[in-house]
UniProtKB/TrEMBL annotation:
Catalytic activity annotation: adenylyl-molybdopterin + molybdate = Mo-molybdopterin + AMP + H(+)
InterPro entries hit by this protein: MoaB/Mog-like_dom_sf, MoaB/Mog_dom, MoeA-like, MoeA_C_domain_IV, MoeA_C_domain_IV_sf, MoeA_linker/N, MoeA_linker/N_sf
EC number: 2.10.1.1
Pfam families: MoCF_biosynth, MoeA_C, MoeA_N
Pathway noted in the entry: Cofactor biosynthesis; molybdopterin biosynthesis
Enzyme class label: transferase
GO BP annotations listed: Mo-molybdopterin cofactor biosynthetic process
The protein's role, per its UniProt record: Catalyzes the insertion of molybdate into adenylated molybdopterin with the concomitant release of AMP.
Entry protein name: Molybdopterin molybdenumtransferase
Length: 404
């Protein structure tokens, strides 16, 4: 049964994605610096690639109709790659190499392994099909076609394709500028000894890593004390430089949860008890015109809510063409006896079992357990109100897919 006070993940995402302004600022970078960036414009092919017919092998270029039985064919030219060939003399062949341009008049290339070289010329030892071993002009990219669409994220593959078209500088969308604010009087940075009641601030580093890997620019990273005025001042200051503020902690309904209170007083706030586990309290609002995503405080919840809620939102704001997650269906290697009204994202990993695979769960799924996230390679989804027995098929998302 659905709990009316818990918001389904899909509804929260619909709301978030409807309020996700895409970065508008464009910058031009060297192709060498374009990895991971999002194309700000369509790339049409300026000229055919390859620019001319060329040989796919090392061998001999000739005209098929000039071949006569076992009569040797004189070799009249040599065409290294990088040189413009002269037209082929009739009844002769040209020595040619992989990537060399096909001379006018030739219609086929015979591999050198299929040829016997004699003093009088070459003897072709195999059947020749007209057009064989020729890579046609424009067979990779044809002038005028759309090669890469705006919104494509540049992988090494796209870097190569852009280079093949002669693109040296690329217009990309600016990186999303994100501020990370960790809240909590108990937090201390690594490097400082812990006093009584203190713990190390781990969320700050988890979020820094996630955002960097997602191609964002972390412009501000501060720890907020549980004080109303300091929280307000820092949120307003962060809003001046950031496109997005991500907070951790302080969004429950306790009296020390000042992020929630400041957004209500000085900005706007939708607070959701989301129907996911871990990660119930997630806030979304704005201050000083800058959107604020308020994640829970527990470290395990931070990772799960960032990946399941934050990443789709960030991808949209980055202007990336969105592909739905595909995941994998894998049999469970664990059991969950008591069903939950919340959809559970189990910190899990895919393991080999005989000739197949199974998804194993970290034994302690408590939301404060960070070691589970290092043991795991992804998240297995247990639907709402469902028990799990070993062998049941579950959807499994790898961390790399969730962060892609
Ligand atoms: P809160 O939502 O602020 O009540 O925090 C929930 C739990 O997460 C508490 O146990 C906090 O101590 C812990 N927590 C909050 N922020 C962090 C952080 N940045 N790093 C590690 N643990 C945190
Ligand atoms: Mg707190």
């Amino acid at each position: 049964m659905a709990n009316p006070n818990l918001m389904p993940l899909e509804d929260a995402l619909d709301h978030l994605l409807s309020k996700a302004p895409v970065v508008t600022e464009i910058e031009t970078v060297d192709l060498a610096d374009s990895l991971g960036r999002v194309l700000a414009e369509n790339h049409y092919v300026p000229a055919d690639v390859p620019p001319a017919d060329n040989s796919a092998v090392d061998g001999y270029a000739l005209r098929k109709q000039d071949l006569h039985g076992d009569r040797p064919m004189p070799v009249s030219a040599r065409i290294p790659a990088g040189e413009a060939p002269k037209p082929l003399e009739p009844d002769t062949a040209a020595r040619i190499f992989t990537g060399s341009e096909i001379p006018e008049g030739a219609d086929s290339v015979v591999m050198q392994e299929r040829v016997e070289v004699t003093d009088a010329g070459i003897l072709v030892l195999a059947e020749v099909d007209e057009g064989q071993n020729i890579r046609r002009r424009g067979q990779d990219l044809t002038r005028g076609d759309l090669a890469l669409a705006k919104g494509t994220q540049v992988r090494p593959n796209e870097m190569g394709l852009l280079a093949s078209m002669g693109v040296a500088r690329v217009a990309v969308l600016a990186r999303l500028k994100v501020a990370i604010l960790s809240t909590g009087d108990e937090l201390v940075d690594p490097g400082t000894p812990l006093g009584p009641g203190q713990i190390y601030n781990s969320n700050r580093f988890t979020l820094m890593g996630l955002l960097t890997q997602a191609g964002c620019n972390v412009v501000l990273c501060e720890t907020l004390r549980d004080k109303r005025e300091a929280t307000r001042e820092t949120l307003l200051r962060a809003a001046e430089s950031a496109d997005l503020i991500i907070t951790s902690g302080g969004v429950s309904v306790g009296e020390e949860d000042h992020v929630r209170a400041v957004l209500e007083e000085s900005g706007s706030l939708s607070l959701w008890k989301m129907a996911i586990k871990p990660g119930k309290p997630v806030a979304f609002g704005a201050i000083g015109g800058t959107p604020v995503l308020g994640l829970p405080g527990n470290p395990g919840s931070v990772l799960v809510t960032f990946l399941m809620v934050g990443m789709p939102y960030i991808r949209k704001r980055q202007g990336r063409n969105l592909k739905p997650l595909s995941g994998e269906r894998i049999p469970a290697d664990f059991a969950i006896a008591s069903p939950s009204v919340r959809r559970e994202f189990v910190r899990a990993r895919k393991e080999t079992r005989g000739s197949g695979s199974a998804v194993a769960a970290y034994p302690n799924q408590s939301s404060g357990i960070l070691s589970s996230t290092c043991w795991a390679d992804g998240l297995a989804v247990v639907p709402e109100n469902t028990t799990v027995s070993p062998g049941d098929l579950l959807t499994y998302y790898s961390f790399s897919e969730l962060l892609s």
